[in-house]
Amino acid sequence: MSDLYDRLSKTAQEIRDRTGVPSHDAVAVLGSGLGGYVSMLPGAVGVPYAELGLPVPSAAGHGGIAYSVKMGGNHILLLAGRVHAYEGQPSEVVTYAVRAAILAGASKAVLTNAAGGCGDGIGPGDLVLITDHLNMSGISPLMGENDERLGPRFPDMSDAYTPELRAKARAAAEAVGQTLKEAPTPRYGRCILQVVERAPMGWRTVEFRLEDPDSATCQEFLQQMASFGAFHGCSPDFERSGSHDDEGWVVFTLEGNSLWLNDFTDLFIGGCREIAADIAVGDEKLNKILDAIQSQLEDQRTPIDRNPVVTVARKGRERLERVEGQASFGALIEELGVHVGRVRDVLSQLASVRGSEGWHARIELRRIAAIDAEAVIRTARRLERVARHMCELLSDKHLHKAYNSFMEDTKALVDLRDIAEHLDEYVVGRGKRDESGEQPGPVFESAVTGDDVVVIARGRSLGVLYAAKCAFRLGECLRATAGER
């Protein structure tokens, strides 16, 4: 095993001995331009990094001196300067000083830096509170042998930039009348092509107010909205708004490539409206939230011509789907089959957890089924989109070949028909429970027309029925188009 922990422990003890502080409460790394801050602190005495066994920076503006000061009753270790990877140092050396400070007692770390920005609304000289980061450098301090004494192999990064500390930063900025903007930060090399490619990678952030934040309806809506976003890979996140005193205000964030988020906006808004109708049809409070989300997301659409590199890549992908229609169908049908199978398995489990004792299990199973149902809907829509592109661009010969292959591969979609027939039996609705603890299930009708199944849902379904409608409508669309040609 590496001797890193032993070396860090030795450095931590050196920090204690040279500063006379048995344990520091926090460490703050002073980035470019902030090294002179310590001159404003009375009684600050510095110790050169080299004397503490810390790596010495070579970049201008990074003095390489550690200061121990007492602020607000806390012992703070100020590190004036940092070692960078671009100086030719490995991750182990870059992170050495902060790790040593943690072993010296620091339970909190404040990191500062001077950086350029490629996001809208951020200009030179702005103070920005970092909320998250994207590591695109190709290196990580987690690489290599792991020593559990220094932390887990996979640390939790959901709140790496602690909400409590960020809230204190906002409050401090407001107290001195300083504007503090917020943004995530990418981390990658200085190649200009990388900057061009990463520029559209961003976030969509909306802010709205919950009139009754503790109500079960609002909580269920937020949970399902987050699940819908999470399934589609946009890492949704909720937190209380720091710009309002009213606790009912929340900030909801979607993460991803800006151009992809452009495409996802309509699907997300439509999905959220279906969720809201599923929970409480005509609920004005939910409708107000949805209107606010829609308005703000539409305002944040990124013009497609801002990034020609990504535009060309996306057009190439779309062309591949159109020209290689058969392969696209195969992949999408396989994906659809996975989710349909999982929905079927969940419904089978629902059949075995009847009665009041199985109520909590049914709730969890319904959530799982709901997420897979949304996946079925999404995949069916992608199938339909690819089919329409093929119908527009492929010759008669290739269209019929792709269509025949598609029809052979989609025989498994009969599972959707079986699911529709058994939903009444398996799915427990959201109505009031009767004396036995059961909840009344939704009412369904099924009408068979030819080889297609048109399912009409009454009440509050899981969305599986709408997925069936989408999938079979696709088959109808393809058959009609192929027949015309």
CATH class of the largest domain: Alpha Beta
Give the helix proportion (percent range).
40-55%
Query: Structurally, how many domains make up the residues?
Result: 3
Number of helical segments?
15
What's the story with the biggest beta sheet? 5 strands, mixed
Give the CATH topology of the largest domain: Rossmann fold
Overall, the morphology is: elongated
In what range is the share of β-strand residues? 15-25%
Mean pLDDT over the residues? 67
Instruction: State the total count of DSSP E strands.
Output: 12
CATH architectural grouping of the largest domain? 3-Layer(aba) Sandwich
Which helices and strands appear, and what pairs or packs with what?
Elements: H1 4-19, E1 26-30, E2 46-48, H2 49-52, E3 65-71, E4 74-80, H3 91-94, H4 96-103, E5 108-111, E6 127-135, H5 163-175, E7 180-187, H6 192-198, E8 201-209, H7 216-231, E9 237-240, E10 249-257, H8 258-279, H9 284-299, H10 308-323, H11 325-350, H12 359-393, H13 396-409, H14 414-426, E11 443-449, E12 452-458, H15 464-484
Parallel strand pairs: 1-4, 1-5, 6-7
Antiparallel strand pairs: 2-3, 3-4, 8-10, 9-10, 11-12
Helix pairs in contact: 1-4, 7-8, 7-12, 8-9, 10-11, 10-12, 11-12, 11-13, 11-14, 12-15, 13-15, 14-15
What would a concise description of this structure say?
With about 475 residues, the protein is an alpha/beta fold.
Overview of the molecule:
The chain has 485 residues and is an alpha/beta fold. It folds into three domains: 3-195, Nucleoside phosphorylase domain (Rossmann fold, 3-Layer(aba) Sandwich); 204-300; 323-482. Helix content is 48%, strand content 16%. The protein is built from 15 helices and twelve strands. The strands form four sheets. The protein has a five-stranded mixed β-sheet with strand order 2-3-4-1-5. The protein has a three-stranded antiparallel β-sheet with strand order 8-10-9. Helix 8 (258-279) runs antiparallel to helix 9 (284-299).
